[in-house]
Design a protein that fits this description.
Distance between the termini: 31 Å
Number of domains: 1
CATH topology: UDP-N-acetylmuramoyl-L-alanine:D-glutamate ligase
Order of helices and strands: EEHEHEHEHEEEHEHEHHEHHEEEHHH
Strand content: 15-25%
Shape: globular
CATH architecture: 3-Layer(aba) Sandwich
Strand order of the largest sheet: 6-5-1-9-10-11-12-13-14
Number of helices: 13
Structural class: alpha/beta
């Protein structure tokens, strides 16, 4: 008997979000618009610079899959998240945040290392730039997977960021195989163009002979399929997933429901922060299809949710926002 609609796994990170200038990025040699893995000292250096500037920092539970399952849960889906945190202040914050969002959190016994953190820097053009110290989440293992929840879920949702390491890839490959054996549908986010390109072999390892659903944006689709246009990328993705959703900013989304393609127009939005837009899209989409909606309806809801979140600072929406979304 299914007990969870969505069981998600990913890096358990505490996000620190802050507004910065392009000059700050340049002065600190930060590549704009991408996620860069850094060590603890580098992240501390950047946080120190921001604190000395008097910047306002916002902290909350994060990580791509975490953001998505929180969105799905706040819309009404029953969700669980598996990740690794440490026995520190940030680990406590992370767990408490998920409890407030009505998402079950499964983690192996916390250890003495440091909970992972992601510094999200947002510039005036709404672009987000991330410097991530994985901390203890880098040691994500089979212990962080609740196998009972996995086999009793409708969907197993994975973030591509987990596949930047051979050991984690092996763990997720095993979990995907178990999910398939128990009839659990598998969904994967390609997460980032650099993941889709540099770790495409690892992504293919966990996909195996195919999964039910892939989420990606246009750049990720092109990188993963090694193609130069959206049509070719979409055709190539059919080899890996029965269905998929490719987001393309102001151009909307291209959806394949297993039979037909649909182009879903974007919702006009005045963006102030693009952080979490893709995560929100995936979470809203998963909520919709677990509620029995078709892919067109799901994509329309997901586009609206993504448009709404980019008009706010941070990757989350308020309860009143979700009530509004469900009324469409």
């Amino acid at each position: 008997m299914t007990t969870q609609q969505i069981y998600a796994v990913g890096a358990a990170l505490v996000d620190t979000e802050v507004s910065v200038s392009d000059a700050f990025l340049k002065n600190h040699s930060i590549d704009k618009g991408v996620m860069t893995l850094v060590d603890q000292s580098r992240q501390a250096e950047l946080l120190g610079a921001l604190n000395s500037d008097g910047s306002k920092l916002s902290r909350h539970s994060g990580g791509s899959a975490c953001n998505s399952v929180v969105a799905a849960a706040q819309l009404g889906a029953k969700g669980c998240f598996g990740g690794k945190v440490a026995n520190d202040e940030d680990g406590i914050l992370f767990a408490a945040d998920l409890a407030r969002a009505n998402v079950q959190f499964y983690s192996a016994k916390a250890d003495s290392r440091v909970t992972g953190k992601c510094l999200v820097m947002v510039t005036d053009d709404a672009e987000r730039t991330m410097s991530t110290y994985l901390g203890v989440s880098d040691a994500f293992s089979d212990s962080e997977i609740d196998h009972n929840a996995l086999v009793n879920s409708e969907w197993f949702y994975i973030e591509g960021y987990l596949q930047t390491d051979e050991a984690r890839t092996a763990v997720i490959k095993s979990a995907v195989e178990k999910a398939k054996q128990h009839g659990v549908k598998v969904a994967l986010s390609l997460s980032d163009p650099f993941v889709a390109q540099l770790f495409s072999d690892n992504l293919r390892v966990i996909i195996g002979e195919g999964i039910e659903l892939i989420f990606c944006n246009k750049d990720e689709a092109l990188a993963f399929t090694n193609t130069d246009n959206l049509d070719n990328a979409a055709d190539s993705l059919k080899r890996y997933a029965k269905t998929f959703a490719i987001t393309d900013g102001a151009n909307g989304a291209l959806i394949f429901d297993g039979h037909d393609f649909f182009k879903i127009p974007a919702v006009n939005a005045k963006a102030i922060d693009t952080n979490g837009a893709g995560d929100m899209f995936a979470g809203a989409f998963l909520y919709a299809i677990t509620s029995g909606k078709d892919y067109q309806w799901a994509a329309k809801l997901a586009n609206k949710a993504a448009a709404m979140v980019v008009e706010r600072f941070g990757p989350r929406l308020q309860a009143t926002d979700f009530d509004q979304l469900k009324s469409i």
